[in-house]
Specification:
- The strands form three sheets. The chain has an eight-stranded mixed β-sheet with strand order 2-1-3-4-14-13-12-9, sandwiched between helices.
- 25% of the residues lie in helices and 33% in strands.
- 42% of the residues are buried.
- By secondary structure, the protein is of the alpha/beta class.
- The protein has a single domain, classed as 3-Layer(aba) Sandwich (Rossmann fold).
Length: 212
């Protein structure tokens, strides 16, 4: 059993690696930029720190990586977790320093946070998670505080976007902000589990026990 954390130059890999190793229960945790390793992994993690466009370019610069991800996650049904910009890359487009294509696994786009002048951007620090519906990866996490660092967020269209469809959790930051998404075999968090102390470790454990 292996857990592949994709190294595509986005940073913040070591803290993610340490957190996953802590919860791995004997399973191998591998930092990798090799598509063939990802193509055989039982769980796949895509971290992300930085600008959407830079991360999208870095991921696509690894020959065969997007194809390996698509095949392993969407067709072979292996669990996937995107973290922060790694979650944002699941969306169709990102509007940061221009317009950039994401993976397009979700019909959503990533836009700058728009908040009241009294609130700071980026949204940085702890916020209270409000879970929508039920999902294995979020078991026991409704109402828990988790850690955010972001100035952009996924946006879905439609009046019911926060209660239906792929949104699994949100937080209040001058209005609702998407905090987690889920569909079929993939899951994403705008917050950082590896920085969220016990709540983050619980999410990682839930993810590693998840069988879509």
């Amino acid at each position: 059993m292996s857990i592949a954390i994709i190294d595509y130059g986005s940073g913040n890999l070591r803290s993610a690696e340490k957190s996953f190793a802590r919860m791995a229960k004997g399973r191998e945790v591998v930092l990798t930029n090799q598509p063939d390793v990802v193509a055989k992994a039982d769980h796949i993690v895509l971290p992300g720190v930085g600008a959407f466009g830079d991360c999208a370019t870095g991921l696509r610069a690894i020959d065969g990586m997007v194809d390996a991800l698509t095949e392993r996650v969407l067709h072979q049904a292996r669990p996937f977790l995107g973290i922060c910009v790694g979650m944002q890359l699941l969306c169709a487009k990102g509007h940061e320093r221009g317009i950039h294509d994401g993976l397009g696994w979700l019909e959503a786009e990533v836009h700058p946070l728009e908040v009241a002048p009294a609130l700071k951007v980026p949204h940085m620090g702890w916020n209270n998670l409000q879970v929508v519906g039920q999902h294995k990866v979020l078991d026991g996490l409704d109402g828990k505080d988790v850690y955010f660092v972001h100035g952009f967020a996924a946006q879905f269209s439609g009046d019911d976007a926060l209660t239906e469809g792929p949104i699994a959790a949100h937080v209040d930051y001058g209005g609702p902000v998407v905090a987690a998404v889920a569909r079929d075999t993939f899951f994403g968090t705008q917050f950082h589990p590896e920085k969220s102390q016990q709540a983050g470790l619980q999410l990682i454990e839930n993810f590693l026990e998840w069988r879509p």
